[in-house]
Amino acid sequence: MRGITVNFRRRCLADIAGVGVLGVLVAIAALFVSESILPKILWLFLFVIISIIGLWLWAARQSPETPMGWLFVAAVSIVAAGVWYGISRLLSVLLFSGHAQSLSENVDLSISFMICPGLTGIAIAGWVRALVLRSAR
């Protein structure tokens, strides 16, 4: 019974560390975005949502268990956002002209900025979580 309690306590400590890192990352992002663009209450909602997604991803069987695995996820997230933006811009140039092209650029950039920081932040927090799990053993 004691082994289950120690393992549970270790995982809870790691989850708290991961959610704490997500909180710091969301707070840093909130410093750079004007309140007229995104009200402060929405940052709290964003933190709750990204924390739930992070906890779900960290508990998934397919998620990395090592710190290097989480750094790899962060790198893939950044590369994927760049590839998404590049391909969508290429398609916008080929398919649209004039005003529609500039609107498409804003949408493409917005989607890239939504995907990359969220997954990268969860991966960085997962890295810290994995470090805490490894050091607690």
In brief:
By secondary structure, this protein is mainly alpha-helical.
Order of helices and strands: HHHH
Tell me about the biggest sheet? Answer: none
Radius of gyration: 18 Å
Residue share in helix:
over 70%
**Please, how many helices?**
4
DSSP strand (E) fraction? under 5%
Low-pLDDT stretches are: none
Number of strands: 0
The averaged pLDDT comes out at 84
Shape: elongated
N-to-C terminal Cα separation, in Å? Answer: 17 Å
Class inferred from helices and paired strands: mainly alpha
Key features of this structure:
single chain; 137 residues; mainly alpha; 4 helices; 0% strand; elongated
Written description of the protein model:
The structure is a single chain. The protein is mainly alpha-helical and 137 residues long. Helices cover 85% and strands 0% of the residues. It has helices at 2-32, 40-59, 67-95, 99-135. The relative contact order is 0.17.
Summarize the SSE layout with pairings:
Blueprint: H1 2-32, H2 40-59, H3 67-95, H4 99-135
Helix pairs in contact: 1-2, 1-4, 2-4, 3-4
